[in-house]
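Researcher: Go.
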Amino acid sequence: MSELLIPAPPVEVPPEGLALGDAARAVGLSVDTLRYYEKEGLLLDPAPRDGGGRRRYGPHDMAWLAGLVMLRETGMSIADVRVMADLSRRAGTEAERLVVLEQHRERVLAELERTRRHLAALDAKIASYRRATTDHDRETPR
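Model: Structure:
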């Protein structure tokens, strides 16, 4: 049921899947971060390996990774991503996943409001400095 998180992979994935570095690059992660996410159990399944033992990420893996990156970029904690991954591995947990996502949405909205207030304060400070520099330029003899 991870399809509920994101509908499609962020890139076209060849039949053999993407190598670790290519997968990381496609979703904007470093290789080390992707390995860390795997080690922490944040992926739905361990990435399958090719004959040489190298990880290969298929469309399902890439779709999940893109969703994981979105959640992290919106400030979801590793602990909550782990909860989402654990729930997403089990059928019939949609209601629990909804609760996690709704709680996260509330945190994102609160952060947006804080950011709006900070932006307004920054805009006021910029306007003040523009006025001060304009006034200073008018008062400076040429």
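Model: Helices lie at 20-27, 31-39, 59-73, 78-88, 94-139.
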